[in-house]
Amino acid sequence: DAGVTQSPTHLIKTRGQQVTLRCSPKSGHDTVSWYQQALGQGPQFIFQYYEEEERQRGNFPDRFSGHQFPNYSSELNVNALLLGDSALYLCASSIKTGGGFSGYTFGSGTRLTVV
Amino acid sequence: SQQGEEDPQALSIQEGENATMNCSYKTSINNLQWYRQNSGRGLVHLILIRSNEREKHSGRLRVTLDTSKKSSSLLITASRAADTASYFCATSNTGNQFYFGTGTSLTVIP
Q: Is the per-residue pLDDT at A17 higher than 70?
């Protein structure tokens, strides 16, 4: 049973560029949430996708956008990259239908470095 | 801020000892979770405790929740070197957005 798969694992981008990160949720999960984790900090909620719609958004600017596909996979896009966007980006899947939330399954993350 | 805060920030113990870490939060919640993270990679879900529960066990882990004090504790009994990791609590009052603390870094010395 495959867990959450994220790609790429590492990425180096130049300030001002755009980046797309990808996530395939755990089999049977229908909800994808994205988190940003700066070095030495806890994960910060970016947004959550369910039924191909953004359901909730954290305190992140519009430069951060996302998408969920019919197969539940998701993308996170960041435009006009800033040095401060350097972080570990984590995808977490969960199941919303049925018996309620029982915890996230996290991917291993994408380490983004902006230079 | 709604995020939980773990205490202590760092903890170092000998293998076989028990480790206790605490989480405090500021707003009402519907559940609280504990996660483990090794070496800055993905987080692993340990336990979820709902607001109407007071204690849960999973193997060597025991979690308590005191909603009147807005606090939770995670106890790891008979610690092992493999338990060395960062531990985070995460709270939510909506079930959609979770707030993580800055974590407790646990080192278990063989």
A: yes
The shortest CB-CB distance from A58 to any of B45, B97, B103 is to B97
With bands split at pLDDT 50, 70 and 90, how would you rate the model's confidence at A1?
A: low
pLDDT tens digits, one per residue of A30-87 = 999 999 999 999 999 999 999 999 999 999 999 999 999 999 999 999 999 999 999 9
When scoring A96, A106, A112 by the number of chain B Cβ atoms within 10 A, the one with the most, hence best to mutate, is: A106
Q: At B7, list the tokens.
A: 């205490």
Decide: helix, strand or coil at residue A99: coil
Interface residues from chain A to B (CB-CB < 8 Å): 4, 33, 35, 37, 39-45, 48, 55-56, 58, 88, 90, 92, 100-109
Contact B4, B100 (CB under 8 A): yes
Residue A2 pLDDT grade (very low, low, confident, very high; cuts 50, 70, 90): low
Indicate the residue of B45, B88, B94 with minimum beta-carbon distance to A42: B88
